[in-house]
Design a protein that fits this description.
The structure holds two protein chains of two kinds.
Chain A lengths: L8 E6 L5 H11 L9 H6 L9 H15 L5 E8 L10 E12 L2 E11 L5 E10 L2
Antiparallel strand pairs in A: 1-3, 2-5, 3-4, 4-5
Chain B lengths: L13 E4 L2 H10 L10 H6 L12 H6 L6 H5 L7 E10 L8 E14 L4 E11 L5 E12 L1
Antiparallel strand pairs in B: 1-3, 2-5, 3-4, 4-5
Classes of the chains: A alpha+beta, B alpha+beta.
Chain lengths: ~130, ~150
Amino acid sequence: MSEITVGTEIPALELPPITRTTLALFGGASGDHNPIHIDIDFAKKAGMPDVFAHGMLSMAYLGRMITNWQPQSQLRRFSNKFAAITHLQDVITCSGKVVEIVENDGEILARCEIQAAKASGEQTLIGEAFVAIG
Amino acid sequence: MLDRSKVGHEFDTFSVDIEKGRLAFFAKAIGENNPIYCSEEAAKAAGYKTIPAPPTFMMSVDLDGPVFLPVLGLLEMDLGRVLHGSQDFQYLGQIYAGDRITQTSKILDMFDKKGGALEFVVMESSYTNQDGELVGKAQQTLVYRN
């Protein structure tokens, strides 16, 4: 494994465009049956132009990026805020980098800033992850 | 305004079985192709006891409780006006296929912004496996559009 230091970039993950099928499958698989993500009639009644993606879908994509990079058993903390709604056909790219090396409970952790963003550059999720590296 | 007196409210504890078929479905739905998330052999070869639940699956434990988002009823919230503001997971152990996870959660805080146009409900949950091991904690903020 190459050395992880401040500035190390997590290999980015670019996702296919979000479709209604993506949302239906994620709704079922995640247990989030909120109709606002799968039922256009419900979404319109709630004042939205159409269904939109679950925030947790993009957080799961960020999780994929992290566990593609380091084993899940090394992940200690993972958090984000949901900064913007992801719409149908948006192409989300996850990225991140190590910004600090810290110690906690005798473990060396890489603190990573992570984000999901649309092709326009608009950030949809902004967060951080702590990954044990030694 | 949502009922601020509910800060500190503890929701009913419940337990959920973590099924490997469900984990495979979750992995498929997020495009996760790493075989450790659907094959016991691959998971063991990678050093896991068996198939691990992906990092964000912890929240699916919440969603699999007997009542879908019990906070909605408690605070008389309209589902169509709820947004997810933030999510924080702490991993103290690992949730595996075959586990029975017990979830407890409570309302930690409530506040508003933009003159009450947006209200925030912060909840804290913890996850304990069948051996009594605390495997994770989560904090979630819901945003309510008034």
